[in-house]
Amino acid sequence: MNVPAVEAERVSVRFGDHDALRGVSFAVPEGAFVALIGPNGAGKTTLLNVVLGLQRADRGTVRVFGHAPHALSADALGYIPQVKTLDRTFPGRALELVVTGIRRAWPWRVSAAERDAALAAMQRTGAARVADRAIAKLSGGELQRVYLARALVRSPKLLVLDEPGAGMDIAGEAEMHHILEDYRRARGATVLMITHDWEGARAHATHVLLMDRGLAAFGAPAEVAREERLLQVFGYAGHKAATHGGPHDG
Amino acid sequence: MGELLSFGIMQRALACGVLVGFVAGYFGVFVVQRRMAFLGSGLAHAAFGGIALGILASVPPIYAAIPFTVIVAIAIVWVRERSALAEDTSIGVLFSVSMALGVVFIALKKGFAGDALAYLFGSIVAVSAADVWLALAMAGATIATVPLWGAWAYAAFDRNLARTDRLPAAAHDYALAVAMAVAIVVSIKIVGILLISAFLVLPAAAARMMSRSFRQMTVLSILIGTTTPAVGLYASYVTDLPSGATIILIQAAVFAAALGARRPAA
Predict the structure, then answer these.
(1) Closest chain B C-alpha to A232 CA, distance in angstroms
(2) Chain B residue with Cα closest to A51
(3) d(CA B95, CA A216)
(4) Which among B33, B167, B215 is the nearest to A108, CB-wise?
(5) What pLDDT was estimated at residue A249?
(6) Which residues numbered 90-149 in A keep a CB inside 8 Å of some CB on B?
(7) CA distance A158 to chain B (A)
(8) Domain extent listing, chain A
(9) Do B214 and A90 touch (CB under 8 A)?
């Protein structure tokens, strides 16, 4: 039997007297494309942080490819953070940021081999033209492409994305979904992505994880996105969730 | 300058100033980029508690201040890691306690404790040969941390991204805080407690405005950090002004020049 890519069993996280997650359980099969959806404060980012090993669960367990999250090899993981958390005062170039995906440190000097590998990944995500641009001067969409190249350059088997559509126009977001989908199919990789975009989730996701501090639903998009369930979670059953969160969203 | 260097006091002050400038210039880039300037200020004030403890115990104050300030640095990071408090709150609490302890230690000292003032404002005549060796050891220890530059720079860019790459960010935070604590204490005789945090901030801040890469920022910060003490000491000798304040004003002039030369943000 295949080990699930991500498996959560009754995971709870509490911040002070606030339950960020309450008894969340699910199992993501390897190779799935999971859209993580829910209103602001639903626990989406907290759940991602637990999966990434950045946050310990107060109760319950999470296994990533059968390992505790912090024990998972960094090479197996590609993470794309929210662009709004970026420190734009940092003096660096887009290419250097992509090289951190290879070296797991900020490069003093980029070798020819690293430059070639980084440029190939940037070509794939449409970011090659901004390779030598200062990070501070990248638009939100360009930055997302750079971060995606950084994640793909190490060929991870799990991609974790926190609102990759933020800062992108509709065409850019659709293109990113296609890049992710192509990568997933080519490598059999698993994708776990927070999104507010129902349309993208319906079109590309194999599974939807609907969050409301606890798990509201997990399954195929058509099954999860039932109107009464969306009304229950969002108080709204439109195709695109109306709200985008702040830095501590979810 | 030749006449200046004929004095043993100035030779020691210059050697100590350049070595401390190297250390502060190197660590300063992480301090500035990680917005830790208040930590430098907090540790400098905390060092006063250690200096006062040394005076009370009649041991060389610097040797009491180093472990004292290192413990405060570790405590600041530990409190931040273990509580929901922001780092500036943790620093504020611990440096106030350290200063209060310093005042109590001075009050408990029987007889004259005027030495403490020399540490507040810095005094090059107080720089001994042992201080130069201490600064040299600190510079050597700083060079030993150079292999960590890439990891520290990465964490300065995005701490969580670095943590997903399994970098031990908390261990690096402790190492950086301890290094800053030692650098600050070693620098106190030259610059003084009240001004030492500027040593950690001004060269790196000026370098930031002139740099397109973190590597360039690091090199420029070290360059500014090592040259300004020499220029400042000379200016201090010529004008008969306090050395620490003069060095800081020279660094501030470099910062102002970098600010003036920078194109306004679009």
Answers:
(1) 32
(2) B164
(3) 47
(4) B215
(5) 42
(6) 90-93, 96-97, 100, 103-109, 134
(7) 12
(8) 6-83+155-243
(9) yes
Which CATH code of 1.10.8.10, 3.40.50.970, 1.10.3470.10, 3.40.50.720 fits the domain covering B4-259? 1.10.3470.10
Q: How far apart are CA A50 and CA B129, in angstroms?
A: 53
CATH of domain A6-83+155-243: 3.40.50.300
Three-state DSSP string of B122-174: CCHHHCCHHHHHHHHHHHHHHHHCHHHHHHHHHHHHCHHHHHHCCCCHHHHHH
Per-residue pLDDT tens digits for A133-152: 999 898 888 888 999 999 99
What's the pLDDT tens digit per position in B176-206?
889 889 888 888 877 788 788 888 899 999 9
Long-range contact list for B239-245, CB < 8 A, 24+ apart? B242/B121, B242/B122, B243/B13, B243/B17, B243/B122, B243/B123, B243/B124, B243/B190, B243/B191, B244/B121, B244/B122, B244/B190, B244/B191, B244/B192, B244/B195, B245/B121, B245/B122, B245/B195
A chain contacts of residue B84, beta-carbon cutoff 8 Å:
15-16
Looking up tokens 């070639």, which residue turns up?
Answer: A116
Mean pLDDT in chain B? 87
Q: Dihedral sign, CA of B20, B26, B29, B35?
A: negative
Give percent of chain A with pLDDT exceeding 90.
Answer: 43
ipTM score assigned to the predicted complex: 0.83
> What is the chain A residue with the closest CA to B212?
A91
